[in-house]
Amino acid sequence: MAGRGVGHDPHARWRQEQFVKIWMNGELRGADEARVSVFDHGFTVADGVFETLKIQDGSAFAVRRHLERLGRSAQGMGLPAPDLEEIRNGIDEVLAANRAEIPDLGRLRVTYTAGSGPLGSDRSPGGSGPTAVVAATPMTAWPESAAVITVAWPRNERSPLAGVKSTSYAENVIALAEARRQGASEALMADTQGRLCEGTGSNVLVVMGNRIITPTLGTGALPGITRSLVIEWCGVEEMDLPWESLGDADALMLTSSTRDVQPVHRIDERDLSPLPQIARDCVTEFRRRASLDIDP
Questions:
Q1: Is the pTM of this model over 0.85?
Q2: How far apart are CA 213 and CA 235, in angstroms?
Q3: Who contacts 195 (Cβ-Cβ below 8 Å, separation ≥6)?
Q4: Is there a single domain that holds both residue 182 and residue 44?
Q5: At which of 138, 164, 183 does a domain end?
Q6: By the 8 A CB rule, do 55 and 74 touch?
């Protein structure tokens, strides 16, 4: 299959990022002028939430769904409710201001933190208020298919962060670094009960015969935006799957806001090609439906 390998380098266009405009707490700023306090709880204790959206031809995909999840994540963290209308205006401003720097494909990130607070874990009741940032950078397209590995570190489905898109991402950083070390672009994890859960930044689809299955949210998996769309558009089923089911799968696919629906051609040392027709149809249907509505 064409396009195999790690392929995707998130830093390939790093040099251009210094020219982008960033929205922060209601104001557009240059990248060199956007500053967050060293006392911000998002920096000191990862006390924040975020969303990543794909920019396609100057527009961000599924903004409404992403902002709704941002609000749910903030509620799950006990953060003040974000002003989603203001953040949406910030997204529009960032897209307009960076059209020349990001004309085709890009990544947009919304970060929302508790704001300045003590150096410990307690939040300050008299702090500066939340910090809201919208930033965008150019992005290189993911390859047609991905290699993935499995790792032994589990997701804790009983964690208060289960299902929350928190800025506390160190576990994902470590697992993804291991995937890169092994020539893969994603690492898959089980939950503490030995059920298949998700990747570091993606949900997983498992093809078994004429069915496409994704793990339930009870495993602690993030309720991904692309995941929800393939459930609606492609008839994907939600089901608890034992970790060992990876060895029986006819095919695997990853879903995320930047990958869309990406087939997996290798898991650990196992080759998964060719891709079954039902999986190819899912990829095609997602692309078709996504092209019809930028904010489904």
A1: yes
A2: 9
A3: 215, 219, 240, 241, 242, 243
A4: no
A5: 138
A6: no
- pLDDT tens-digit series, residues 118-176: 989 998 777 779 999 999 999 999 999 999 999 999 999 999 999 999 999 999 999 99
The structure tokens listed for 93 are 């401003």
Q: For the segment 69-111, what is each residue's pLDDT rounded down to a tens digit?
A: 999 999 999 999 999 999 999 999 999 999 999 999 999 999 9
For the cut 70, the answer to whether the pLDDT of residue 5 exceeds it is: no
* Domain CATH code at residue 172: 3.20.10.10
**Domain annotation covers residue 84:** yes
* Average pLDDT of the segment spanning 177-184: 98
Report the domain count for the chain: 2
Q: Which of the listed residues 106, 138, 170 is the one where a domain comes to its end?
A: 138
CA-to-CA dists, residue 106 to 157, 173, 245, 257, angstroms = 32, 21, 34, 11
Q: Are residues 117 and 22 in the same domain?
A: yes
Residue 59: closest CA among 84, 94, 16, 27: 94
- The Cα–Cα gap between 172 and 175 comes to 5
Structure tokens at 55: 């920019």
**Boundaries of domain holding 106:** 14-138
Same domain for 274 and 170, yes or no, is yes
**8 located within any domain:** no
Strand partners, 12: none
N residues, the chain? 296
Using alpha carbons, select from 179, 199, 217, 207 the residue that is nearest to residue 256.
199
Residues 108 and 243 in one domain: no
Question: 147, exposed or middle or buried, with CB in 10 Å at 0-12, 13-18, 19+?
Answer: buried
47 occurs within a structural domain: yes
Buried b (16+ CB within 10 A) or exposed e, 41-68: bbbbbebbbbbbbbbeeeebbbbebbbe
